[in-house]
Every structure is written in structure tokens, then in C-alpha cells.
Amino acid sequence: MDAQSQLHATTKLYDAAFKGDVPSLLNLLGEDPLILDRCIIEKSGKYMQSPLHVAANFGHVNFTNKLIEKKPKLVEVVDQIKRSSPLHIACAEGHLQIVKTLLGVNSSICYTHDQDGKTPVHVAAINGQIDVLRALLNVEPQAARERIMGGESVLHLCVKYKQPEALRFLVKTVGDDGELLNFDDAVGNTVLHLAVAAKQPEMVEIILAHSKIKKNAVNKNGLTVVDTHKQSRKDSTKDMDTEIWKLLTCANVLPAKKAMKTTKDRAWLEDHRTSLMVVASLIATMAFQVGINPPGGVWQDTIKDKKGHYAGKSIWSCDHLFDYNNVLVSNTIGLISSLSVILLLISGLPCKRYLISILRITLWISVTATTLTYMFSVSNLTYGDGGIRPALGISIVAWLGLMGSILLGHFLRFIWKLISWLRRQSIMMCYPIRSKNTTKESNLVDNV
User: Fold this and answer.
1) For the segment 187-207, what is each residue's pLDDT rounded down to a tens digit?
2) 1-146: what fold?
3) Boundaries of every domain in the chain
4) Terminus of the chain with fewer CB atoms < 10 Å: N or C?
5) What is the pLDDT of residues 155-171, one digit of tens each?
6) Fold observed for domain 160-253
7) Could you tell me the pTM of the whole model?
């Protein structure tokens, strides 16, 4: 077949694709079996798209099926307009049956990016094609994680192109993927930032309803969604502002300054919680060992006479019961106090600052009891003075001095905070009007 005949056959093929004319397709394939191969090799020639692109665009299901049956490789061909695959075209137009057919041939085309970086999932979301999105994600759920060139996720595109139902479906479908829900774009804006900036209260509500959304995420400009909302107030209607503001305050979304403080507080609490758990566990282990293996050991035999003893009983307790009791009492205090700290930490109670303070004081008691246990043991296990008792006395005095200094420091810190609080209260009483206005202005933002 000469070049002129090939060109004529190709023209007839595209006419058939426009009309969905399956008999014409079969006749052309009978006359020129290589016609579809040329469409692939020549990148669709002057028509810029393959016949499969055309059939997918017009929703010709039977024609599409026959093309794929004859040449499955056509599903991977991208056009010369936007480097879109036939699946991109079918998703944009919402031709569900064609989408399913294309996915059945090669599901990996879900990850094909056009010249703008959009995948078929992105195209379906932009056009609000919910059924198509469902079909795509049923076959390739990870395709929802693909991003366009600007770093925007499929959720960003739903907001950008005002497709609330597509957003609702995607949030519900990919809800277990907390990372995807909190993807940010090139400037650090999450989908929540974008919804607030776009003045879309319905979308803001959809996003905030999900528990894995990081409501106080900060973008690269150091702004949370509250700060973004403040900056964009002047460009919107009052009703929209009020509705979005209510949604943000009900969800306890914070401005950047408070959000960063909250994050630091949580990190501080977690660090202290870990430290307290480690120290309490070590002290509990030591105290337990002293309890079951008392200093001086235990009797290995039983002698039943006036001054007899029993196997397993403490040797020390037979002749120095008072000293042994001192060790036992201090060791028990150390064990119980450290176990109490462990129990409170694993109890599931909210780990607040006041609880950390209580646990810290409890550990002071535990550490002090452990110190006394050691001193009583060393003192009574050493023959004569040998200089050990004066050393122990000095150590006790030094220890008490250290504990006193710590307690004094915390007491002075408490007094300083109390004075500062009283001063703020007196200022508010002296300037009630100003305080009231300030409170009214900042209450919605600063409510924690």
C-alpha cells in the first residue's frame, strides 16, 4: 500500500473512531492490518491523538473494546496535545465503562502523568467524576498519592476546582492514610489551608471532620489556617468569614504562635514522661532486688533452738532488727513510690503539667528513699567506724542541702508566677473596657 493509500485509510479510521463505527474499523483492518501499528509508531501523525483517544472522548464503548482487542498497546499511547493517555480522556468525560475497560488491560496507566503532571485520578477529581474515581481507586488505591508538578495532591485539586463531593468521597476513601490527608504543596499549604483561603466553608467542614487532619499545620510562611483566614478576610463576604471562623473555633484550630507553643508543650511533656518512666523503672528494679536479696544474705539452713533461725530469713534481721527495719522501710518507700509513678504513667490519664509535677515530687521521694537505703546498708555492713560514718553524715547533710535548694527554687518560681498572675488580674480590673474588647477580639483565636 502506497503512502497516499495509507493516508486515505488513516483518515477513514479516524472518521470511524469519531462515529464509533465498528464495521468500518473491521473493514479497514482487513484491508490494512498494520494501520493501528502505524498509529503507534507515528505518534498518531497529523491527528495528534490515537483513534483510541477519539473513541474514549466520545464514549464509544464497542469501538473502544474492538480497538483494544486488536491492539492492546494503544492504551499506553499518549497524545501530542497534552501528553494525555486515553484513560485521561475517558476520566475527564466520565465514561465509566471505557475507564474500566482500559484499567482491565493495564492498570498501571493510572500513574501516567500528562504535561501538567496530572494523572487520570487528578483529572477525574477535577471534573467531579465520583464513579470514575471509585473505579480507579478500587484497582489502584496508591494512585491517589500521586502529585502534580506544584506538589499539589488530588485533595488540593478538589478544592482548587471547587469539587466538594469529590473531596468528600476522597477523604472518606483515603481516610486511613493520614500522610496523604496532610500532604502540603510547594509552599507548605495543606488542603485545609487551601480550603480556607478559597473561602469554601463546605470543604473546610469536610476536612475538619476527619480525625487524622493536622489542624494546626504551619506552612512555609509560618501560618496556620487561622492566620490564613485572617489575611484573606478583606477579600470575602462577611457570611462566609463567619461560617469558616465558627468551624475553625469549634475545631480548636490555633494561630501559628499558639500552635507552635502547643507543639513545644507536647514535646516537653513527652520528653519528661519518657525520662520519668526510665528513672522509675530503674529505681523499682533496684528496690525489688534489695527486697528479695537483703544485705548480708539469708540463712541457708534451719536451726530450731532458742537462738535458732530459719532458712530463707535475713541474717541481718536476727541480730540487728532495728537497723534491718530502717533499711526495709526506706527500701519499701522507694519501691512503692517508683511503682506508683509507673502506674500513673501507664494508666492512660491525660499527661498534663500538673501530673508531671506530682510524678516528679514522687520520684524525689523515691530517690531519697533509695539513698537512705544505701546509707543504712553501708553503715551497718561495715566493721567499726573506719571513717565511713563521718562520710555518710556529710553525705546526708549534702543531700538534704541539695533537696532543700531544689524545693526552695521551685517555691520561689511558684511565688513569681503567682505575683505575675495577680499583676495581670489587677491590670484587667483597672482597665475593664480595654480588657473586654481584647478578650472579645482574641477569644475565638486563643481558645485552647
Assistant:
1) 889 999 899 888 888 999 999
2) 1.25.40
3) 1-146, 160-253, 257-381, 386-448
4) C
5) 999 999 999 999 999 99
6) 1.25.40
7) 0.64
